[in-house]
Amino acid sequence: MIYFRNGEFIEDEVRLDLAQPAFRTGYGFFETLCWNGSKICHLDLHLERARKSLAEFGIAEEPLDYEVVISEVVAANGLDNAFARVNIFYPAEQGRTQPIICAVPFEYIPDRTWSLKPCPQIFVTPLMVHKSTNRMDYVNAWQDAQADGFDDALLRDFAGNVLESSFASLLFRKGDTYFEPRTEYKLQGTAQKVAERYIEIEAAEIHLAHIGQFDHVYALNSLGGMIPVTAVGEVEFEVDFVNAAMVSQFVLG
Question: Are strands 177-181 and 169-174 parallel, antiparallel or unpaired?
């Protein structure tokens, strides 16, 4: 894999200062974007979110023409006409970050569905509103769900209220109304921000014990679009491909 950092295209190895928090503690942020085979999707939303986190933590960003560099990284990896996952990493070293940009192939499955396992562990922290590179809890929850035959983990707070999944925002639909979990402990997803332009979404506390009242559940992320959820634990839901496909074309377009 060829990546870009500090004006250079480098293959495979990323060098970090062992004395700095980026290496020692996973201190930094990242964004995951979709290259849809011809362009990068919603770069402005991803940069807005990343820069908000960098500013809050006092990390200076090296200036970069992201659109040009992303296109060059995609081409260097032979992915110009392919669906690909693009990542921008912001490792923090001495209060500054030199962004790392990489691209790898990603298989997009249009009619994919997910099942979610409620995560048995609870982790609630203000850092959850940031896409930090210190995400061991999220990965552990996902691995545990995968081991039990689910696609992802559903995260909740100590009161049993739904937050998000390990890798996606969650939407719940009853009748014609869409709901997002109302909480201070989840990431503001860029895919959901795109979805809000086309569907009206209300915020509400959604308790895990009461999710059976909803007709449909969806996961949203930058690579999968809007993905119908078939089940949360043992609670099953009707699959809605029509509205999911409508929103996905805008998320991935």
Answer: antiparallel
Could you tell me where the DSSP H helices lie in the chain?
21-25, 43-56, 66-76, 136-147, 190-195, 241-251
Query: Per-residue pLDDT tens for 128-155?
Result: 999 999 999 999 999 999 999 999 999 9
205: tokens are 């506390």
Q: Which of 79, 89, 66 is nearest to 35 (CA)?
A: 79
Q: Coil, strand or helix: which one is 131?
A: coil
Return d(Cα 157, Cα 197) in angstroms, integer: 28
Fold for the domain defined by 2-105: D-amino Acid Aminotransferase; Chain A, domain 1 (3.30.470)
Tell me, rounded to whole angstroms, the distance of Cα 230 from its chain centroid.
20
C-beta of residue 197 within 8 angstroms of C-beta of residue 172: no
Q: Comparing C-alpha atoms, which of 114, 87, 81, 56 is closest to residue 230?
A: 114
Closest C-alpha among 80, 162, 74 to residue 117: 162
| Residue labelled with tokens 């209060």 | 95
What are the start and end residues of each CATH 3.30.470.10 domain in the chain?
2-105
Separation of alpha carbons 197 and 175, rounded Å: 19
* pLDDT at 228 exceeding the cut of 90: yes
- What pTM was computed for the model? 0.95
